[in-house]
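Run log // design_07
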């Protein structure tokens, strides 16, 4: 089984589940604000949740903190300041820790950005998706292109230097020229990071029940290839399937996920994965999803909707699902450091994937080929133990 002599790096994810309007493509745990936003009540619940999680991470330090949603920028700057202050009082953050807040361009202004900056947020992730009004309307966003541009400029004036922009391609009836125009507009603004990903149609969404017109597969591949060339020519190196960054500006919080680090998760529907050297276990938990239920149960064990002790097979598959998204792949030492397992645990699967041209070995790194990146789900099917019928990846 496992043999931890040290635990992996630790991050904290905080989920704020409300938004102004549910987007038709969104399958995240987000809920439209129907009445008054229960900010104070929810902050109290988050801290009660965190207090109960602390014994599992005594003595450890946070490398990053990420506030996601939903739309966290619906919360006031004073509320975010209170939250971060209370977190710091409970668990130490490493000096220079990355602290990210997701924001919707339709919910912020310069004063709010300045308040977030003063509270300790040092990285913003703005959900732009497109700068073109027709495409934004087609995917149900509440902002238009001019509001997106204004939000980015306001964030700069407020002192934010480390900014990610979320952009989608493969939008309803989108052309390659339109997709590349969005990228050029974004790059002109010089964000430090760009998340550029294909619109996917997920179950339990409006688009799943009412599919929009999508570009053909060949057109999607053309967008992806042309967009990557454009980004890399402008100094944005791809380090994960849908993540591009200027030199040294990779998202540390997401890298921790992809490198199979540990993370606490507090808030409605939040996930956690914690390694315990004392018990030689890795446990994954999920909090109750609905905000009302979470608010009612945050002070008790009822806040946990599921808890699973991971098996060796679980861990090797999850490690592959995450690390093979990275362009750099992983090393044998990184596998052992993250899982505590010897590389021999996965060696036969690696060799089989190399024989099938899904993986290569390159200067000590095991990484996906272009074929492996394009058909990652098929590659992960080969990673399953023989007793498992299928893999589900996102």
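design_07 sequence
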């Amino acid at each position: 089984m496992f043999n931890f002599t040290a635990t992996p790096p630790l991050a904290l994810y905080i989920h704020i589940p409300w938004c102004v309007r549910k987007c038709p493509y969104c399958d995240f745990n987000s809920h439209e604000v129907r009445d008054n936003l229960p900010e104070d009540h929810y902050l109290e619940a988050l801290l009660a949740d965190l207090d109960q999680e602390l014994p599992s991470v005594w003595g450890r330090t946070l490398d990053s903190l990420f506030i996601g949603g939903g739309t966290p920028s619906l919360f006031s700057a004073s509320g975010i300041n209170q939250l971060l202050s209370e977190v710091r009082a409970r668990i130490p953050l490493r000096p220079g820790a990355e602290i990210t807040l997701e924001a919707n361009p339709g919910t912020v202004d310069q004063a709010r950005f300045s308040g977030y900056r003063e509270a300790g947020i040092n990285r913003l992730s703005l959900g732009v998706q497109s700068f073109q009004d027709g495409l934004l309307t087609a995917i149900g966003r509440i902002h238009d292109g001019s509001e997106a541009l204004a939000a980015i400029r306001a964030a700069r004036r407020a002192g934010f230097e480390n900014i990610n922009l979320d952009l989608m391609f493969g939008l309803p009836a989108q052309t390659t020229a339109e997709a590349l125009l969005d990228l050029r507009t974004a790059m002109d603004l010089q964000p430090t990071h760009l998340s550029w990903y294909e619109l996917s149609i997920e179950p339990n969404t409006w688009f799943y029940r009412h599919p929009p017109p999508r570009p053909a597969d060949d057109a999607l591949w053309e967008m992806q290839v042309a967009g990557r060339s454009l980004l890399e020519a402008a100094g944005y190196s791809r380090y994960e399937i849908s993540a591009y960054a200027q030199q040294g500006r990779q998202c540390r919080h997401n890298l921790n996920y992809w490198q199979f680090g540990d993370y606490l998760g507090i808030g409605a529907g939040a996930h956690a994965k914690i390694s315990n050297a004392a018990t030689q276990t890795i446990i994954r938990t999920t909090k109750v999803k609905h905000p009302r239920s979470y608010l009612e149960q945050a002070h008790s064990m009822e806040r946990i909707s599921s808890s699973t002790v991971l098996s060796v097979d679980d861990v090797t598959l999850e490690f592959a699902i995450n690390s093979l998204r990275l362009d750099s792949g992983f090393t044998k030492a990184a596998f052992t450091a993250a899982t505590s397992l010897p590389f021999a645990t996965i060696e036969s699967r690696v060799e089989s994937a190399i024989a099938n041209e899904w993986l290569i070995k390159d200067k000590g790194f095991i990484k996906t080929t272009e074929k492996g990146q394009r058909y990652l789900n098929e590659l992960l099917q080969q990673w399953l133990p023989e007793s498992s019928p299928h893999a589900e990846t996102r």
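The longest helix spans residues 217-233.
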